[in-house]
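Table S2 (continued). Query chain:
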Amino acid sequence: MGEVKTPRQWFLWSIALIYVCAFASIYVQIPGLYGDEGILPVRLQVPKVQRPLLEQESLLCLGPYLGLEPQQTLELMCLLGVALGLGAVLLEPLRDSLIYLCLQALYLSLYNVSIMSFYLLSAMDVLLLEAGVLAVLVAPLGLLHSSYRYHDPVSFWLTRWLFFRLTFCTGVSKLASGDPAWYDLSALSHHLENQMSPTLLAWYVHQLPDWLLRLGAVVVLQSEIIVPLVTFFAPIRRLRLFGFYVQLFLQLCYILTGNCSLLNLLRITLSFSLLDDDHFNSNSGPKKKKGQDKKPRSYGQALVSYLTLLVELAVYLFILYSFITLFKIQINWEEKTLSSKTSFNQNGFNAFLEVFQELTIWIGVLSFTWEAVSAMLNCVCTRGIASKLWSLLQWAVITAAAAAVFALSVVPYTSMAGMSVSKVLPAVRDAYSAVERYQLVGAYGIQHRLISAEGRPEIILEGSYDGLTWTEMNPMYKPGNVNAVPPIVGPHQPRLEWLMWQAAQGGDDTSPWFTGLIQRLLQGKPEVVRLLQVDEAQYPFSQRPPALIKAKLYNYHFTDPAKDKTHLQNWWRRQYKKEFFPIVNLDDPTLNKLLEESGLKEKFPVQPGSDTPLSQVLSLIRGHVKGLSGSLVLSTLLATLAGIFLIKAILSWALGNRKPRPASADHKPKKPKEPSEMAEKSQAPATSNRGSKKDSNEKKDTDRSPRKRK
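Corresponding output:
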């Protein structure tokens, strides 16, 4: 693989931007999730017995030393994360290994605080933690002040290995779990309405013919299983580019139909590992002049080029062959339709997985060894003994760290169905257990959620004052009102909606967070109400909290204009399934028992916080953000960044046009003459026109002399 300076910078820039979005999204939701009046107050999760600082799993323990309450400590961590991320986005010198180490430590602290509350346990959080670890290895260390970075391809290779594990495991889990929707290829139709936050475009895509949606399911499986196997580690550059554009197209489709989540942005960021500098410089390189012939290639070079082309064509034909044979693609020319169904069962797929998953590990070992040896040879070829030794030392440290991360990643990678973890060396398993709490590597595709054909289950909260008239409390970012247009969430991650979506899928009504949600809504706490609705006009109990609350479970479906003649104005149609949570009030024994079991029954009143200058600053910032939705805050932040980059581009263009153009070879600037020469010239008599013509003829004859031509 060629140089990776530009893709590496794109990766670091994108990771910093994702950190900004993640920290800002959490910061907006802290009062409702972790605050003293929130669903699960973080002060109740702080251990009563203080442990040594080095044994702490979160930076929350530093709050008392700063004179901050636990909630404000979380806010400070998020603001520091936003500030460091913005600095890395705007200034290239700040894309340093130490900056990414601080970002990783801050996000890991938030993750560890959320283990009991399940707020930050999504696949995006696990992936961001592992990508953050890789950013620490990929980013330069400013303290070294070294221009020799021949080990960059080695550390950057880990991002390609992570991208492969993520993509391959995601695709494999769909079939290894035995999900019938993927085996009969109807999954895409159900996925469009079952995903976390479907968009308006998802409704229109859902109206496409059934055969076209089944073909889309085949494309998804091919893109996530076959394409990574044959392109991600291919030695042919064009195959890697093919894999990159396939994955980019797939993620763009997910974004358009399921909102732009940080998980999609992380996948696109990791896909930069398939690129190299030649891809970026191919269009900006110097153009050859007309008439300039290419250098003739030798016979060996031409043979290698033809063989490479044949191998590339063979890979494309293999992808097409597997596309047709594995899914029995048949075209009906008369009806102008296409039929497809899988030609294998779950047992056959598990047999395939048992062989190929172990093979992918050895392919990863060979690919990593190639990158490490190539980087070492480049270090050996460095001029100067001191530079050579220094670059070799850096190469040894980075290669050892990369090899350790690669070995640790094999443990969760083999946790999928089809391969036993016992095949991994015991020393590697022990090392993984020792560092598992630091989230250095993650497991993907293990807990695949089966796609239900019965529709999208949704929890609908209802409140009442008298127990006779009930009013729904519809959230902002997920289906509730069947007439409401599917919302645009953007990179904001609404944690409460995600938990409710997960709870509806699993049918669990005894989670501590759900009990705390019911309690705070009965109390009318504005911090929790803003998680559901920022606009008071959209919340029916903004003036007075409800006396009673219950929860129902409905199955939602996208409407079909061809079938649902009575729902022409609706985006959704729903069907009552069951009661999810019984009718309760604040004094209900059932609610109090659940609160006590969850540790949310407070025996002592909340103590007033300290009034330090830092606390006052944090309160001032919170006051400006209060009442704003998370999507609005992130949209404003991203728009500000876009404006800054636009201004920088305009200034760079304007200043670039004002610079003097370099003189060409035919019009070199004349050297200023000495004062003595100017005096002699003024004293000399003016030459005649005839003499001038004669001198010019002599000059031409001189130019034609053999010495001059030579």
